[in-house]
Amino acid sequence: MGEGVLKRYREYLPVTADTPMLTMGEGDTPLVESRRLGKEFGIGHLFFKLEGCNPTGSFKDRGMVVAVAKAMEAGHTTILCASTGNTSASAAAYGAAAGLETVVLVPAGQIAAGKLSQAVAYGARVIQIAGNFDAALDIAREVAENYDISLVNSVNPHRIEGQKTAAFEIIETLGAAPDNLFIPVGNAGNITAYWKGFKEAHDDERASSLPQMMGFQAEGAAPIVAGHPIADPQTIASAIRIGNPASWSSAITARDESGGLIGTVSDEEILEAYKLLARMEGVFCEPASAASVAGAIKSARAGMDLSSSTIACIITGHGLKDPSVAMGLADRPQEEAPADARTVADMLGARPKR
Ligand code: F0G
User: Fold this and answer.
1) How far is CA 324 from the centre of its chain?
2) Rounded to whole angstroms, how far apart are CA atoms 49 and 34?
3) CA 344 – ligand 1 centroid, Å
4) What confidence tens digit (pLDDT) does each residue in 119-149 have?
5) How many Cα atoms sit within 13 Å of 272 on the Cβ side?
6) 289 CB less than 6 Å from ligand 1?
7) Backbone dihedral region of 114: left (phi > 0), alpha (psi from -120 to 50 degrees) or beta?
8) Phi and psi dihedrals of 4, rounded to 5?
9) Residue 279 contacts by C-beta under 8 Å, 6 or more apart in sequence?
């Protein structure tokens, strides 16, 4: 344990004798069973895959370690990505660990504070692009195509390879594939990666069944559901504020081959799930991650019978990534008191011990 994705899953990854076995302890994240939410919504067995427990607080680390190791192997000295925040945090961390220069292109002013602070702390070169994520990704692709710089967005197939390992872990923990996998969809790399992982495990008989892939986009940023790119995507879930996903067609394939769906959840539904996860389960995630649980709740409310199902919701990123959302949703006012125990006990209405 703690050995990292490259070592643990080397036989399923593009690892050669020359691939540096880079790791920061990514992968091997907890799959915890719901204590209350599952019962509340009539779900047989509800699990949360806590990808916020990765070294930089999101699932991106699984793919980034492979992409960065392969960039090192190829002799690149600079890595580049466009990002809504988590990819840039992960690229910056693994770039630092590998001794590479990291350049991140982010939509100006649209990155959650925790994520931006990571890129800055790890010493990346941060370029705020006057445009949205889709514009930043177009630029990153064009630069990487024409210059000697390694692109580490999920259009890099090594990212998908690394990310598929989360599907392997779920199968190992449950002893089987879940019946349904609920997952947020932004640039659509992760749903692509999970489906690849589940199919490979099924093909090698590590799992006897395949899950239905249930992807969820934010209502204001739902190009796959709409069937056309969205020029000005909007949602509180800034991680998935994406109007033209790079892995669009492979997301459709995952949906169709698995007999699943790609649907939408509103910002209200995302924030409801975000609060319920924290208040009922003690799981603090970022808003985009709550789209998976919002999707499960929406499906249960719409009458999908999950009463005897085992479902996994992917909690893609940690709540500390975007603390302003949590602060804005406080149910209780913060109180003030003098530095005095008696006053605090009085405020609590506590009875003295006898
Ligand atoms: N959840 C979180 C927390 C994310 O950061 C992302 C994507 C997604 C879900 C969606 O995953 O793009 O593979 O469909 N974040 C990217 C980034 C776009 O730049 O950090 P996806």
Assistant:
1) 18
2) 11
3) 43
4) 999 999 999 999 999 999 999 999 999 999 9
5) 11
6) yes
7) alpha
8) 95, 165
9) none
